[in-house]
Design brief:
6 strands; single chain; six-stranded mixed β-sheet
């Protein structure tokens, strides 16, 4: 069995400006650095066999801070894997979040106000699909696409950790990703809604992978 600690990166400039971030990037704020340090303190005693981050700078920077505070791991460095990127929002990236939802609502004939009020009734996969369908450049990902690549990355990381460990214990792996992608994955792993699927900056989930099956065991939320 492999235990995965899946962490959302610290707060960024785009987060506080409420811009749709996706595959575009912005630096961590001072608060975001402190969030990463807090996670680093909480996980400092865990002996990670490997540390992964998506290939976006905000994800890698968060991983560097957390790993730099770890007192038990001897990993040679951070492995970047684009499968742990945020969901792509295509041509909507960099736009005001509320304006994006209004545009998506208009595209689907829901009306601006109705979509803003009712979006919590949709699953994250449904919302991502609606955004992808409304993207005029057809570059945005669906939730299914995000979930598929994310799950593949987690299962590969778990297999690699098991193969590399020669000690008689269960390996533990750290992965840094982003909020929407993590929320979609949690939704997939938690069909009975035992855990909140809203993932805040600095939150982390604990996932156990056993014989190719991933199970969500915990969500540590900062709110």
């Amino acid at each position: 069995m492999v235990k995965i600690y899946l962490v959302r990166h610290g707060e960024t400039e785009n987060n506080i400006m409420r811009k749709m971030q996706g595959w575009c990037d912005s630096p961590l704020t001072d608060n975001g650095v402190q969030q990463a340090r807090q996670v680093g303190r909480e996980l400092s005693g865990i002996q990670f066999e490997a540390v992964y981050a998506g290939d976006l700078p905000r994800q890698k920077r968060t991983a560097e801070i957390i790993l730099g505070m770890n007192t038990s791991s001897y990993v040679p460095g951070i492995k970047t894997d684009q499968r742990f990127r945020e969901t792509s929002f295509g041509s909507f990236e960099g736009m005001d979040i509320d304006e994006v939802y209004k545009a998506v609502g208009r595209f689907h004939g829901l009306g601006e106000d109705l979509f803003l009020l009712k979006r919590s009734d949709y699953t994250r996969k449904e919302i991502s699909k609606m955004i992808a369908e409304a993207d005029p450049e057809s570059r945005a990902e669906t939730g299914e696409e995000t979930c598929r690549r994310f799950m593949d990355g987690i299962l590969d990381a778990a297999r690699d950790a098991e193969a590399a460990l020669y000690e008689d214990r269960d390996p533990e792996v750290l992965i840094i990703s982003s909020g929407s992608a993590m929320g979609i994955l949690l939704e997939e792993l938690d069909p009975d809604n035992k855990f909140p699927h809203m993932v805040h900056n600095g939150d982390y989930a604990v996932i156990e992978v056993n014989r190719g099956k991933a199970v969500l065991k915990e969500l540590n939320s900062k709110r």
